[in-house]
Amino acid sequence: MPAKKRKITKARYEALAELRYALRQFLRFSENAAQAAGVTPQQHQAMLAIKGFPGPDLITIGELAERLQILHHSTVGLVNRLVAERYVQRVMDRKDRRQVRLVLTLRGETILENLSTIHSEQLQRMAPQITQLLKGLRGEIF
Amino acid sequence: MPAKKRKITKARYEALAELRYALRQFLRFSENAAQAAGVTPQQHQAMLAIKGFPGPDLITIGELAERLQILHHSTVGLVNRLVAERYVQRVMDRKDRRQVRLVLTLRGETILENLSTIHSEQLQRMAPQITQLLKGLRGEIF
DNA sequence: TGAATTATATCGTATCACGATATAATTTGG
DNA sequence: CCAAATTATATCGTGATACGATATAATTCA
Known about the structure:
Radius of gyration of chain A: 19 Å
Oligomer: homodimer
Structural class of chain A: mainly alpha
């Protein structure tokens, strides 16, 4: 069985487009919030990834790269900027001394907490619509 | 009542971070898919917004800017590139001749359809996790 | 010990969107 | 009917990122 030329309905295109629209609105909101807090969006995301790394361990550079979906050596630059602004500290790992672990400073914590609060609120506002759109995308066609 | 210094739990940070991680994975997937199809991510998004504009009317430049959350004159450049590559056509609006409306060419339709199919699949894969995370974010704390 | 892992660094490239500003066509409102 | 608003277009420089390519260094592992 070769190709399965299944036509996509207008309704599905609309749902996909609407979802993207919602996504972009969220990202826009987030960018504005970060800027207003005096950090770049990337710095905000990195801080969240550092603080929200699952489990009790501190995140490493390599893990941060994965969580941010950027390359290893792009991450180093990003962390350098965060350290320069005193939002983050590097911590040596005793077990494996090649690795560096990252932790927020008090300064970083404060900013992240404020940002996280309004992000939570915004997400709660948007959640119903997004959930609905995702639900609408399943099954039906294709 | 002034400030409400409500502390955010580790679990909430983790949920926010996990949600971002999922989002970035989706966006990464989408970028790769677009590149593989021979268009830039922005071109793909614009085509989806054009095709998935709600209702029967064709979208205008101004409306496209809003849907993409970019500025008006950035949109013009994006559309120029889409027209140059023959993915999109400009259509004059007879009612209001200041406006330009946009429509996909057959060439554009084909690419968008393929991309939309795999995006639908990917979203169906990711939907349960995202829905769960959004659910987890509501209420509780703050 | 040699290979793999982890972090760091540099330098140029590419991509985008923006800011600022301007022009033009057209429509709308007082 | 004319002035103001709307819509699209254009140019040019700026800024922000991430990437590719490549290299070095420290450390761990097989």
